[in-house]
Amino acid sequence: MSTALTVALATLVFAGGSSNDQWKTRLAEVREQLPTEDFTIVRQSPFVVVGDEAPETVRARARGTVKWAVDNLKELYFDRDPEEVLVIWLFADRQSYRTNAKTLFGSIPDSPYGYYSPHYKALVMNIATGGGTLVHEIVHPFMQANFPHCPAWFNEGMGSLYEQSAERNGHMVGLTNWRLAGLQEAITNDRVPSFTTLLSTTADEFYNADPGTNYAQARYLCYYLQEKGLLVDFYKAFHKAHTKDPTGLKTLRKILSTDDLPKFQEEWEAWVMELSFPS
Ligand SMILES: [Zn+2]
User: Fold this and answer.
1) Residues 65-103: pLDDT tens digits?
2) How much distance in Å is there from the Cα of 38 to the middle of ligand 1?
3) How far apart are CA 225 and CA 40, in angstroms?
4) How far does the centroid of ligand 1 lie from the alpha carbon of residue 170, in Å?
5) Distance from Cα 6 to the centre of ligand 1, integer Å
6) Which of 39, 40, 80, 115 has the most CB atoms less than 10 A away?
């Protein structure tokens, strides 16, 4: 087999993504599901974006937020698209979000902002609250497709990192955000668990035994790595090592060149205390 053909086949196999038939089926499903005629459907690969704001607004969000986030995340981290065509529902306000989520997916959402439902193959957003949660939720299906064994702390750390993001030197970066104040307060009160504890949490512990700092601690660890120019390398090294290092602890020690995580945590906490939001 020629090298060129090998590469082409490898690309086909590893690119993930959806066939034309999958697209047709999914678009037909969405048309069937539309709660009213006020919705605009935009094919924004690898997603279908559907919203009940003005058509030009839905199109602007598809390009300005969805495409922007997808292009940047793929450039930094992800080779594979989600295997199925996921639908991003952008509901124009609280009422539309709650009513339509109940009708389409059976329950009123817990989150006022939005959520990802793997079961319904949908990202469901109250887009009136801004595009931050949308970018956060876009991270999850990509993580699922590319790093299925990624622990919850890193999945949520990365999602949370990009919920407040911008472009710096042509790349997407996370910025400080609303999660900072609670974290600084917990640091002041000496309530932040050790990184060994955080990184060792199971998904159930991360979500259901959260002392209130899990998301913020994970986010600002990712933010620290980003600001030190280590986050992309950490993602790649952790992805590669995850069978031997399922929590990421070994990879973290390696990338930080330290065996003393308690000492690192002291430095990290001092660094976090210097951050500000709004900056
Ligand atoms: Zn999340």
Assistant:
1) 999 999 999 999 999 999 999 999 999 999 999 999 999
2) 29
3) 39
4) 25
5) 37
6) 39
